[in-house]
Amino acid sequence: MTKTYSAFNIIKEAFKGHKGWSPAWRSPKPKAQYEVIIIGGGGHGLATAYYLAKNHGVKDIAIVEKGWLGSGNTGRNTTAIRSNYFYPESCALYDLSVRLYEKLSIELNYNVMFSQRGLMVVFHSEAEMEMAVRGMNAMMLGGTDARLLDANEVKQRAPLLNYRADARYPIHGAVIQERGGTARHDAVAWGYARAADALGVDIIQNCEVKDVIIEGGTMTGVETNLGPIRASRFGAAIAGHSSVLARMAGYQLPIHSYALQAFVSEPLKPVIDVLAFSSTYGAYISQSDKGGLVIGGGLDRVPSYGQKGNMPMQENVLSGIVEFAPALAKVKLMRHWAGIVDVTPDSSPLIGPSGVEGLYINCGWGTGGFKAIPAGGYLFAHLLATGSHHEISRPFDPSRFQSAQLIDEGAASGIAH
């Protein structure tokens, strides 16, 4: 039973150093053997363990995380959630995620603060508007909601943006997905962690995988800083470091890792109630519930495992925002960070066997990992439990690169969000 606290008790705990709080999940020592080990304690790893236990009855599960929960990309993103992709395979995948997000707070009994404030893709020329109509039709055929806005409708929805006659890129219209929005990134991780722990999953933090144990061509264990841990099956959900594990296990991935930068401003009164982005300006913006403006842009196309940005990319993104919304020119920035994203040649994820017996992969989400956490976990759990694909995940098997059945979402991925 979940313990509740009055406002007085919450204040009292703050002065006492929170010594009366009940832990949200256990911190167990690793056992020598599990049925399934999930490598990676971010959103996808936590969601996979939760659905594996809840939907498939697999209880003997460990999550091993080299840092703390959500310390990778789950805690280093701009929290946008959408399913407005071009190909029907992508629409099915990401719309599953939106549907799961819509019920997630109730399912986990934990408020993930999913706010369906809408996501608006702004266009700046007649040629872009022509392509926007084509994209919108594809989204609707794929089962995703989308609606075309003219310039006046965009202004009504987001008066903060630049509608001046002398704008470098005048606004011609937009496509909006009303069901899109944002969620609280750490709440998503914590909600899945608490729910997985309640189902018996061992969440082992500060447990770094140093090497893999392969016997007779089959992966049977991992060497960690806490000692060897063995299992029957392994699932890797480690985003930007997927290629590092691949080198350990001796397989190859068609992936490059890049830094993806983001910013948050000082808190402001409400100035924009929709997530708006422009691929022309190379920037996008939303406002958090605390008032900070969350700003993001494109990838720094220098391969890197560093969780930090660089000045040229910062200048590109922030100069784009200033032209996109000139009223923000003098707003002060509070924080800047970067995540490590793993990008495939077709900008679509990899879900399937790694090529090493016993090891399955969930990676290659690029800039779309956070929005896909529920679907990624749901589908990866199905794969680990049954050994075969769910119909939604099948098109994203790594074998598509041998069969040339690519799902090229480079345009729909656009800038990172």
Keywords:
single chain; 417 residues; alpha/beta; FAD/NAD(P)-binding domain; 8-stranded mixed beta sheet; 11 helices; 18 strands; 25% strand; globular
Q: What does this 3D model show about the protein?
A:
- This protein has eleven helices and 18 strands.
- It is an alpha/beta fold.
- The chain is globular.
- The model has no long low-confidence stretch (mean pLDDT 94).
User: Would you give the CATH topology of one domain?
Assistant: FAD/NAD(P)-binding domain
Q: Tell me the series of helices and strands, N- to C-terminal.
A: HEHEEHEHEHEEHEEEEHEEEEHEEEHHH
CATH architecture of one domain: 3-Layer(bba) Sandwich
Terminal CA distance reads 37 Å
Radius of gyration of CA atoms, rounded to a whole number: 22 Å
Q: Can you identify the CATH class of one domain?
A: Alpha Beta
Give me the secondary-structure category: alpha/beta
Report on the biggest sheet: 8 strands, mixed
Q: Please tally the β strands and state the result.
A: 18
Assign an overall shape: globular
Low-confidence blocks of residues: none
At the fourth level of CATH, the homologous superfamily of one domain is: FAD/NAD(P)-binding domain
Q: What's the pLDDT, averaged over the residues?
A: 94
Strand-residue proportion: 15-25%
Helical content stands at 25-40%
In DSSP terms (H or I, runs of 4 or more residues), the helix count works out at: 11
